[in-house]
């Protein structure tokens, strides 16, 4: 086993231990820290999804606040009106939101950059209004009250128990994302980001892949919406606004574009700052904005670029012998 592989295993083990111990470590700091921890993990799922779309495929979206609301309502309506189990409503919320994302992503075939951002921002404005007006289904401003899930007669009522459910979903998402990005489809996403013309000339179906990545990103965001709805136990049209879409975008910029660890790091940092500064009222948004500006100025590649300096690899003895031999042979030549 090489030193690099051993180091990666040690890092992974440390991350796993920290993740498993985190809900118990924050207990002495009160229920607010447990709430912030759970919410941070839910937003990690949103940030990883958005980074797949923006960081890895180059499409800017300001509609992810609407996607998380779609997931909220789908899961709540399935469990309350149709009496479906949460464990079925959870993946169904991802499927339905993924279909919605595919339909929203169709304009992405012809739009890009700022035009696509404006188009998706309109979606963020439309969904809360639709939820408010369609009161026969969504109960309007009175909202819906989905219950906490039950796992083999055990209600996930505590923040610590619910934390491990969110952690399991996030771990599964990261595993899927890593394998997706290594696949032919993932490489097509990144080729489109680098150059649509070059990707198309290489045989990549640009329109299909742009709509597909929109659908995958929206689907995982809908999953986060389902987790949020059953965690808060209340769903209303005011849960997420277009301002939250900007916050999700800030998470991946601060953490690091095209980086899964950066998405997670940015979501935890930005959500923690946002929650802790909420007591400052209207000054909260100023503080969050100042942190974003400082983070972008000091770390243009995101917080994920803050890594320990790597030790310079020394050439192996066999390589040194070959190099010295070549130098001696070249010196003998007149």
TrEMBL record:
The chain crosses the membrane at residues 12-29, 35-53, 60-78, 84-106, 113-132, 161-181, 211-234, 246-268, 280-299. It is a multi-pass membrane protein. CDD domains: TM_PBP1_LivM_like. InterPro entries: ABC_transp_permease, LivM-like. One of its GO terms (cellular component) is plasma membrane. The keyword Cell membrane applies. Keywords: Cell membrane, Membrane, Transmembrane, Transmembrane helix. It is found in: Cell membrane. GO terms for molecular function: branched-chain amino acid transmembrane transporter activity. The keyword Transmembrane helix applies. Pfam families: BPD_transp_2. This is Branched-chain amino acid ABC transporter permease.
């Amino acid at each position: 086993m090489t030193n690099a592989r051993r180091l990666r295993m040690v890092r992974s083990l440390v991350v796993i231990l920290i993740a498993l111990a985190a809900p118990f470590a924050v207990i002495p700091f009160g229920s607010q820290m447990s709430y912030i921890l759970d919410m941070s993990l839910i937003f990690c799922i949103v940030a990883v999804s958005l980074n797949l779309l923006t960081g890895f495929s180059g499409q800017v979206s300001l509609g992810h606040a609407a996607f998380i609301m779609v997931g909220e309502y789908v899961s709540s309506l399935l469990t309350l009106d149709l009496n479906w189990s949460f464990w079925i409503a959870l993946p169904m919320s991802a499927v339905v939101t993924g279909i919605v994302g595919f339909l929203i992503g169709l304009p992405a075939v012809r739009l890009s950059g700022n035009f696509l951002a404006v188009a998706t921002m309109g979606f963020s404005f439309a969904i809360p209004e639709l939820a408010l007006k369609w009161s026969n289904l969504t109960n309007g401003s009175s909202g819906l009250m989905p219950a906490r899930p039950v796992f083999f007669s055990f209600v996930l009522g505590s923040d610590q128990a619910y934390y491990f459910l969110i952690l399991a979903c996030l771990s599964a998402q990261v595993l899927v994302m890593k394998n997706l990005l290594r696949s032919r489809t993932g490489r097509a996403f990144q080729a489109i980001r680098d150059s649509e013309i070059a990707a198309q000339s290489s045989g990549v179906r640009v329109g299909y892949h742009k709509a597909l990545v929109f659908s995958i990103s929206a689907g995982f965001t809908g999953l986060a919406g389902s987790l949020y709805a059953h965690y808060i136990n209340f769903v209303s049209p005011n849960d997420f606004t277009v301002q939250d879409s900007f916050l999700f975008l800030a998470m991946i910029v601060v953490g690091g574009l095209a980086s899964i660890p950066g998405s997670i790091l940015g979501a935890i940092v930005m959500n923690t700052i946002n929650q802790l500064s909420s007591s400052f009222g209207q000054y909260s948004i100023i503080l969050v904005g100042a942190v974003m500006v400082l983070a972008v100025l000091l770390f243009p590649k995101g917080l994920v670029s803050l890594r320990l300096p790597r030790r310079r690899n020394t050439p192996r003895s066999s390589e040194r012998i070959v190099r010295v031999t070549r130098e001696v042979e070249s010196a003998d030549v007149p």
